[in-house]
Amino acid sequence: MKSKIILCLALVLSGGLAAFSASAADTSSLRVVIIPSKTEVRVKEVFNIALRVENLTTTNQTVRVMNCSWGEEWKTSNTNISWIGWVCTRNFAISVEIPPGGAYTNELEMLIPKPISEKTLSFRMGFTPIDSKKTFWSDGVKLNILPSDKGEATNSFGIYLTAEAVDRRITGYGQGNWSHIRLLESPLISAADINSYNITEHSMRLRRETLAKIPRPPVEGTPFVVVANGERIYLGVFVTCKSSMSFAVPTIVVDRRTLVTNQPPDILVIERAYPQPSFGLGPDPRGDQRVKTVLNTLHKLKGDRFPWTNGNAPGATHSGSGVQPVKVADIEIAFADPPVTPPRNLPKEAQYPPDFDSKEHGTFTDIVAGRIKALNVTWADPKFFKTQSQTQELLRELLSSTNTYTYNFHIWQWADDTPSVVATVEHTVGNQGKWMVWCDRSPSIYWAYLDGNGKWRWGGWDYKAPRPKSLDTERK
To answer: Which tens digits make up the pLDDT trace of 171-199?
Structure first.
């Protein structure tokens, strides 16, 4: 599952505070249908379950669920099977309106976490909306349990995907304990899958069939763990060069060849961090002696230096152009003279982002880290800002604070009016962007941001955190 929160919309999704004309679902109105991606699985092998809550009536039905931790509304009838959880940094209840004949659909990554004696396992899935006493159960599904596929060679060295979500603070900032995170039973990449490994460049040449198994990660990445002789060596993340997040742990950029065009198609490179080696924290774990020893024993080590590597992150940065990331303190902030009063109407692409989803995408600083080189403020509402330095202080605080969150959809209850701040954005790579900030929704602040790839994002200040110092009313 590319993201842990897939709200496929054969339905109408609201931001949660909007009013609905339909009444809450009654006990005979819904049917739960589950569809497994496979019916033959091994213990600890992850498989997907498609979940459907279907409206059997001729009128709209409304259910309330959590926008991020919607798994709380689901249960299984068999305790021998469970699903992989995920981290929610901002979570609230929303109302989902299901039209007649439509369905509220999600997907879970499930597994049998521990060995069982039976050769088959049957289970049902139950859905209980928030504030409801009724659980809607699916029909039963039967799984055939296959024997474990173990081997000495595949377990001496391996790169394993995790069997549960990894806290973003670990992958993004290198903070936290990952030693107890559950791993899938079989490695994604085993020693048998590696034709050769260059320990100097941390690059590996893989078999063709192995390359087909490499995940297509979401922007927040897909975590993995490198294991040598059964011992965990380091945590890393599969990422895409389209991601605007930063990672402090080793990374494998799965689409690196779009940036480094002369890289052979059967090569994967383990980078120090993303988007630059400087984002890595602590000692570089890629050269761990235990990795060298086991790969040397398996006759996988090669010392040749490939001409398409340079020891940096992909093409020196995510752009492949050698552009260096810009620190927040170094971003140039200029002001238009005279200022331009902005219109109240937002661009249609901002209100209806074409590739929106309902999940949270981390802090705003994760999204923009190192990617903005200059801001040109065309409007700063004098009701909030008495000086240019005050405006600059707010913008830098929003760009660097972890008291923020980001979404890829417009939260309509924010009721946009004239923005308090409007700025054009010059990115280190990509097209010119735009940033609009609203400061009049006390106690929170929110904004719309157009990134260098032409994608609109919506962000906000955590209402539980103190308001930015630059908006301190005593300073005005």
So the answer is: 998 888 898 899 998 899 988 889 889 88
